[in-house]
Amino acid sequence: MSASVARAEAVRRPAAAPAAASGAWASRLGLALYLLFLAVPIYWLVNMSLKTNFEISSGMTLWPREPTLDNYRRIFTDSSWYSGYINSLTYVALNTVISLLAALPAAYAFSRYRFLGDKHLFFWLLSNRMAPPAVFALPFFQLYSAVGLFDTPLAVALAHCVFNIPLAVWILEGFMSGVPREIDETAAIDGYSFPHFFMKIFMPLIAGGVGVAGFFCFMFSWVELLLARTLTTVDAKPIAATMTRTVSAAGMDWGLLAAAGTLTIIPGAVVIWFVRNHIARGFALGRV
Amino acid sequence: MSLMLEDIALSAGGRVLLHPVTLSLEAGSLNVLLGPTLAGKTTLLRLMAGLDRPSGGRLLVDGRDMTGVGARQRSVAMVYQQFINYPSLTVFENIASPLRVAKLPRAEVEARVHQAAELLHLAPYLGRRPLELSGGQQQRTAIARALVKRAALVLMDEPLANLDYKLREELREELPRLFAESGSILVYATTDPAEALMLGGQVATLWEGRLTQFGPAGAVFRRPCDILTARVFSDPPLNEAPARLAGRELVLANGRRIPALQRGVEGECTIGVRAHELVLDDQPGPDAVPLDATVRVAEVTGSESYIHLDVGGLAWVVLVPGVRRPEPGERITVWLDPRRLFLFGTDGTLLATPELAEAA
C-alpha cells in the first residue's frame, strides 16, 4: 500500500520528480524487507520440513543440504498422522456447512424484518464470540459425553458453531442488506415463491458473502484447538492435537512436525484464494 | 378488471401513514397519483400491490375481496423509481422472469420478450446484464418486465424521476400507449403536476396521507376541491394570501379591494393564484388590482422567467414569458386579476374558481 501511496505522491508532484523517485525506491525497499520478514517463519517451516532431524539439530543451514521427503512420506502413510487431517477436515467442513445453513435464514430475517428485540438479539449473537472457548469446554464435554457425541467430528463441528454462526450471521446480514429490498418485492410480484426467489435471484447476489462467511467459518474452525482437543480422544483427534504429541522417548521429531505444519497451512491458503476479491468486505462484516 | 379500494388505511407504530382512501379504478384506465414526497403515494401503491397489508378497509378486485392476498397471488406488476432489475440475470431473462415463473411455453416467452424489447428499444441489449446498461435502458428493462406479464394492474412509482429529461419526455409519451392496449389499470405516481397533466387520465391528489380529490386531470387542475389539492396541483407553488369577503368585495390584507365573484359569503378566506396567472407589466383586465412587491430572486430558464417576490411579507412566484432579470430588491408591480383567482374558505374548501379557467 505504501508503494501505491508513494506512486500517487509522485503523480501529484511532478516537479519534485527526483525526490519522489528516491522516495518510491525507499518505500519499495521497505516493502521488500517487510515481506521478507513476514515470509521468514514460513520459509523456515518449509525448510525444516525438507531436512532430516540430524541436519536440523546439528546447526543452522539456510536451505536443506540433503533434501528429503521422508517427513511427508511418514505423514501420508502413518494413519495416526493422516487421520488427524481427515478428522480436522471433516469437522471443519461439517461446521462450515452447518454454520452457513443456520446463518442464511437468520441473516435474512435480521436484514429484512423488524421484530421484538431484533437489535438486542443481533448484538447478543456477536457477544458470543467474545467469550473465551474455555468457558464452553466444560459444558460441551459433559453434554456430549451424556448424549454419546463425545469423540466424534460432529461434536467439534457443533461446538464451533457457537463462534461461527454469529460471525456468519453478521457477515451475511451485511451482504444481504446491500441488496435492495425492492428486488425481493419485484420477485414476489413476478410470482416467485420464496425458496425459488432465494435460490435463483438472491443467492447469486450474496454469493461473495456466502464465500467469505464460509471462509471465516473454515478458518476459525481450522485453527481452534482447545475445544477440538477437549471433545475428542482417539477417533476424531484433530491434526493440531496430534502435532502437540510428537515428543517421544527419542526426543522431538522436528522435521516431522515441520512437515505437518506446512500441510496445515495449505487448506487455508487454498480457501483464501477463492474469496480473495471479497475478503476485505468480509473483514468489515459485509458492511461497505 | 376493476379495482375498488374501500376505506383502505394504514398506520404503523401509532403513526397514520394513510388515512382511509376510497377509490374505484376501471379497466384500461390511466390513473395518476399526484402529491409531494411523503404524501403517501408509495404507501398507496404498495397496498394496491399487496406488498403491505392495510390496517383497515377492503380491497376488491372485480368485486372479490382480495385484502389479505399477497402480491404473489395477484395479477400485478410494479416499476420502482430506482432501477430495480435482477443483476445476475441477462436483460432477456429479466424481462422473461414473470413468464418463466408462470411456466409459459418457451416459444410464447420468446415472442413476448422480443416484442416488448422491440417496443422499448432494448432488442440489441438482450444478452447484456442490467448493470452494463445506461440508467434509461435499465428502467426500460423494468418497464418491459411489467409489460410482458400483461398484469391486470400495473403500478409505477415515479418511474421517470431518475431519468434525464429527454428520456423522460420520450417515455412519458410512450408509456400510456404501451399499456393502453393491454387493458391494464395503470397507476402512475408522480410529484410533478405537469407530468400528471401531460399523461392525462384520472388524477388522485394526495396530501400528508390523505386523498384530497379524484377525477379527470384537467378538471381537478381547473377546479381543485380544496386548497390542499390546489397546492399539490400547482408548480411553481400556489400563491396564497389571506383576505376577507365583505358583500360583493374582497378585501386584501393591505386594504386593496377587488370585486368578488362569489356572492352571499361573508368573512375570512384565502385567495390562491397560480404563478402563470399573475401579470407584471400591463393591467390585464379592467378589474385587476396592482400590488406592490419586492423582487427576491429571478430564475431564467431560457424561454420563461420565474420571479420570486415578496408581496407584503408573503412569498409569491410569478411566471412570465421571455427573459426577464429584475435585480433583487427592485420594486415591482404585480397585477392580480379577479377572474384568475381561487377563493378558499377558512377550512380550505373551494368557494370560487377562476372565471377564465372555467371557460378554458
TrEMBL record, chain A:
Topology in the lipid bilayer: Multi-pass membrane protein
Matching CDD domains: TM_PBP2
Compartments reported by the entry: Cell membrane
Entry-linked PANTHER family: ABC TRANSPORTER PERMEASE PROTEIN, MALTOSE TRANSPORT SYSTEM PERMEASE-RELATED
TM region(s), chain numbering: 29-46, 89-110, 122-141, 153-172, 201-223, 254-275
InterPro entries (UniProt xref): BP-dep_ABC_trans_perm (IPR050901), MetI-like (IPR000515), MetI-like_sf (IPR035906)
Sorted UniProt keywords: Cell membrane, Membrane, Transmembrane, Transmembrane helix, Transport
Family to which the UniProt record says this protein belongs: Belongs to the binding-protein-dependent transport system permease family.
Highest rank taxon of the organism: Bacteria
Domain ABC transmembrane type-1 stretches: 85-275
Organism of derivation: Plastoroseomonas hellenica
Protein name in the entry: Carbohydrate ABC transporter permease
Lineage, highest ranks first: Bacteria, Pseudomonadati, Pseudomonadota, Alphaproteobacteria, Acetobacterales
Pfam families attached to this UniProt entry: BPD_transp_1 (PF00528)
TrEMBL record, chain B:
Keyword tags: ATP-binding, Cell membrane, Membrane, Nucleotide-binding, Transport
Molecular function in Gene Ontology: ATP binding
Pfam families tied to this protein: ABC_tran, TOBE_2
Segments passing through the bilayer: none
Origin: domain of life: Bacteria
Gene3D superfamilies: 2.40.50.100, Nucleic acid-binding proteins (2.40.50.140), P-loop containing nucleotide triphosphate hydrolases (3.40.50.300)
Ranges for domain ABC transporter: 3-233
Family label: Belongs to the ABC transporter superfamily.
Name of this chain's protein: ABC transporter ATP-binding protein
Organism lineage: Bacteria, Pseudomonadati, Pseudomonadota, Alphaproteobacteria, Acetobacterales
